[in-house]
Amino acid sequence: MESEDWVPPPECPVFEPTWEEFKDPLGYIAKIRPIAEKSGICKIRPPVDWQPPFAVEVDNFRFTPRIQRLNELEAQTRVKLNYLDQIAKFWEIQGSSLKIPNVERRILDLYSLSKIVMEEGGYEAICKDRRWARVAQLLNYPTGKNIGSLLRSHYERIIYPYETYQSGANLVQCGARPDYDSEEKDKEYKPHSIPLRQSFQPSKINSYGRRAKRLQQEPEPTEEDIEKNPELKKLQIYGAGPKMMGLGLMAKDKNLRKKDKDCPECPPTLVVKEEPGVDLKRESTSPRCLVDIKEEAALSPQPCTKMTMRLRRAHGNSQMVDSYTCRICARGDEDDKLLLCDGCDDNYHIFCLLPPLPEIPKGIWRCPKCVMAECRRPPEAFGFEQATREYTLQSFGEMADTFKADYFNMPVHMVPTEVVEKEFWRLVNSIEEDVTVEYGADIHSKEFGSGFPVSDNSGRLSPEEEAYASSGWNLNVMPVLEQSVLCHINADISGMKVPWLYVGMVFSAFCWHIEDHWSYSINYLHWGEPKTWYGVPSSAAEHLEEVMKKLTPELFESQPDLLHQLVTLMNPNTLMAHGVPVVRTNQCAGEFVITFPRAYHSGFNQGYNFAEAVNFCTADWLTAGRQCIEHYRRLRRYCVFSHEELICKMAACPERLDLNLAAAVHKEMFIIVQEERRLRKALMDKGITEAEREAFELLPDDERQCDKCKTTCFLSALACYNCAECLVCLYHIDDLCKCPSSKHYLRYRYTLDELPAMLHKLKVRAESFDTWAAKVRTALEMEDGRKRTLEELRTLESEAQERKFPENGLLQQLRSTIGETETCISETLALIGTKKPIQIHSAKLTVNELRAFLEQMISLPCLIQQLSDVKELLEKVEAFQWQAQEALTDEPPSSLQLHELLEKGSQLGVDIPEMDQLQQLLRQAEWLNEVKEALASPEEPVTLQTMQALMEAGCSVAQSPAVEKAMAELQDLLSISQRWEEKAQMCLEARQRHPPATLEAIIKEAESIPVCLPNILVLKETLYKARAWIADVEEIQNGDHYPCLDDLEGLVAVGRDLPVRIEELRQLEVQVLTAHSWREKACKTFLKKNSCYTLLEVLSPCTYAGFESFKRSKRKQKELGLYKSDTESLGLSAQDLRDPGSVILAFKEGEQKEKEGILQLRKSNQHKVCMQAVNPEDQVEVCICGQPPTDLMLQCNLCQDWFHGSCVPCPKLGGQKQSLAWWDWSTKFLCSLCMRSRRPRLETILSLLVALQKLPVRLPEGEALQCLTERAITWQDRARQVLATQEVATLLDKLNELRQRLQSDMTKEMVALKESTWNEQQQKMQVPLENGDKVTENGNGAHSDLDMISSCFPRLCGPVLELSKSAHLQLEELMMEGDLLEVTLDEEQKIWRVLQAAQPPDLDKLRKLIEIEKTERQAMKGKSRDAEKRRKRRCARGQSSPQFKEELEPKRTRAELERREDPEEEEMGQDVAIEHNQNGREL
Looking at the whole model, is its pTM more than 0.90? Predict the structure, then answer.
């Protein structure tokens, strides 16, 4: 059958027991048997939580598997392979090697071809009718390709000679043979070998068997070898025996060509391999003949073979020649062509053979009779070989997984089971592929350990393992369960009572078989890949045997008990095609498979797995077991145990048997006793009267087996006094021995009188149930009219347990009656209150249930003493119901009466329906009282929570007009209160503010509601706060002065938190916002960026100007954010700031303190020596940094302190208008401690004062600004008066004239200098610089503005004015006071120029300023170069080109680009620029 035709059989039944069913294994199997037995096998899935641990010691588990060649397992395939063995042996004896041809790309099935030819009438008939095309069609070859002729050619070459020898036709004279020498036919034939698939072989096994060796490919002789060797060329056609053209002859051993050089080289011959056990007759020769043979062999140059020696010997001995005659023609002439057979020493003429031989063959030759005898020899019995390697579980698993993964070319877990199943049956049916696998089967668990936990009383098992060790589904426990028959066998029968283990790999198979004694079997797959099963029900067992015998009679001829050897498979599809019902299943890990008695089953493994199996027998098996013994007797098969012994052993102790088992044993025992009587009667009829008792159970099985049928005897056997070793059963008394009957005697175990006694005990045991059942039935149905006591019923139950009666309906009814009686007694005791109840019901009994309970007690067939108590209780309950009905009809009900009735009803312990009505009526009265009390107390108003609770409670009480009226009142009052609460909540929410009048109206409305409202207090408090806030605002606004900003901000913050809409709040917010806007504008006007001073400090006099250390510490505190309050600058408290007079007075005092302090500071700083000291300890700390002095030090013109040129902003000489009027140069330097603000012009300050006058708010900064402005105007008036004096006015005019003259001269010189410089620059511009840079205006190629100023230093002269001493002192005092002002005035600059022109120019200071400015410019250039380098690096990394960005942006100065590279530097530069303007302003 082709693999594509494989059709899986239907699935077998699958059962999934519940936990309750799973507790009784044999009971559950008996329950499913009616369904499962119809299929022969079934699968059981245990509950999910049932997962026994794997108990095998993996490290110590070692086993040797069996070797299985798959195509030798299948019966039909094995027949084909045996046929190939026979035909190959035939050609091998003939000196040729069989090579099977290919037809249509598949190996030709020689067996099927031979069988079809025989079925169609034989070779001659098919040739005569030209039906070879039909033969091709029957072999499933396509039509129309002339395949019939090709099949005929192969049949003639390979099969026909073999069939001829098999039939013996060549032993007689026959007609002419067909012409086999056709050149065309030889060209058609192409020999092929059967390919091997041993690349997937799981283990390296050296012994492949005869067939495997034959199928191995051998190298053929080449054409060159044949042409060079004439003998080999002849052997293509001729040889020892009949030859056919194209049989693919080849040398058996090429090593024969390699001989020693000293020895004569013999041509290769075809050597016949003699099979072991073949007794070939050897010719007996005399010593003389042997000497002659040796001499001839030594002298002859021809190949030394046995045949040539015989022929030479025959030629040399005339007497011997006369004695040899041909077996066919019976003549002895032409002795040179007479052949001697090496097997039987018969003689044949080479021309008498069929077909005739052209010449004497060389090598061993056998006659047609010996060839036929050798080919007709039956094949050896087939069986499995044991592997030579021992495996552990790990090594076997690695081998198995590797084999499967390599075979299917995918991971083992991904191969579908359907693919494996289809491939298995393809390999099994294939004669071409020889796949070998290994199977660890029938491994004894006694020796290697079971996969289930086994209890050994050592205490080494955990509680969980103990549970599995004692489980009935444990295969070590199931055979010896109490309901099992095998528990009565003392011996540990391996495989039946003791489990066997199975370690499988893919394709490893177990063949069709039934269990020993046709018993049940159960298989559990512990882990691994699935195991595929096939099953046939017992009803079709004989049909399966008939089909297999019909399809493969050759196998059963040599092995009649083939199916008992577990070595033969047959394709399920083949069996199904012949009417055999087959089912299948895939057994996964953790599942059971059960086979039923006489159910044939087989299967194979899908991959690496571990299974365990055992047999078991139940009561229903006994009949099948007896039939099996009869079957074994017919087959003469040995028994595993004696069936009669098992039955008698159980019959000897019937009290230990289960009732069902006792009944089954009684039935079997009765049949056995009747049969034993018949057999013994036949023995007595034969005249055998001698007998002796024999304890057969004490004898070994091999000493009590019947010599004829091999049955193990127990009840009786026939023996002979003369033949001590002879023993037969009573079925074969005629086959004992040839001794007379008087010498025969009976050996028996029991007498015929003892057997009925045993049978009677079984009957009593089996019928004891009927007696017990009659007693139970009489007691339950009260047939005698008497009720039994509870003790009597319990006695009947105990009797059933002691006698081990099976579960039945009567016993269940008895237990149910006892249970009901106990329940009634328990509930009765609970009702009458004599002891604590054992509650059966979760609630009390109702009246109807009490009546039903009383009726139940009356109907029970058991006497209950508490019956009168229950009746009395029922009477009390009925009396209470009558009283309750009267109370319910009274209007209005009395609470006291209700309480009394409820107390009385609760003591009865019964659920009375009137109790609920009374309780509802009582709750109704109590609720009405609560409502009345809550609403009738005006001093303590009811709360919303109380009303809501009353409303909820009112919904649960029984409805009445009074309840409905109270509910309506509560609902109205609750609705009014909730509406008011909603209004109050809306007023209190900040999202929607309401005026105070609205709050007053809501509060007034709440006073009329008799409920304690939660928000009333909050609303009143909010209204009170709003009125207080309005009063505060009115008080501030109606004061003598404008309110301070701090006061207004506090009021605004409080007003915003109030959930009330106040009109005054918006006005205050506008005033505060305006004040803040003015303060921000003033800060922008006065304060530098990131200034450490506040606006009030800048506008107020510097009262700490006289203390240098204090001054510096103040600055550090400002920088660190440690300064606490602005009011400290004026020495005023927060309350003083609210009084304008106090602020003005404090400002005036501050002016005086500032003036005195600066004079003191100037005096101390004038004595300071600003030089570097030799001794570090004598160093003086200067500047704002507190570091020692350096070369470039500048002295502040106000405080006369010294500062580093790099630490403070310095006056800039570069970039200003070129002039020799050096007194106009920006050389005035004020330190950052003296110049605290931007010093705006007076006009800007006046605009701020105008805006301040419009504010209805007082600010400390505003009053300070007014004082500052008044101080500045006062100083300005004084300065103008001094500048208007004749002396100073004349000097100012003189300075103007001198500046104009110097400016004119300077202009002429600058023009001449520019012309001369221009020519030089043009020449230099023609020559490009090496570095590619252009010469800029400030570059090295031209004079810079600083160089030009430096060149003017020698021409500077002074003083240019003469100022009187009084005028000088007056101007210096004005200059000092003007520098203290944080205001810029033009008069200040005029006084500065007059004072500068009245003294010589300070060249040292000018040089320092030039040097400082050059240093700053150099630093700026360095930063610019660094920025350029960074831009170039960014361009190199792929960023935007800086030139492209510069094209898109407007041109900027170098300083702007540098500041853009460093934002912090840019911010600092802004402030520096401001101070530069203040330190050196040009008018």
Answer: no
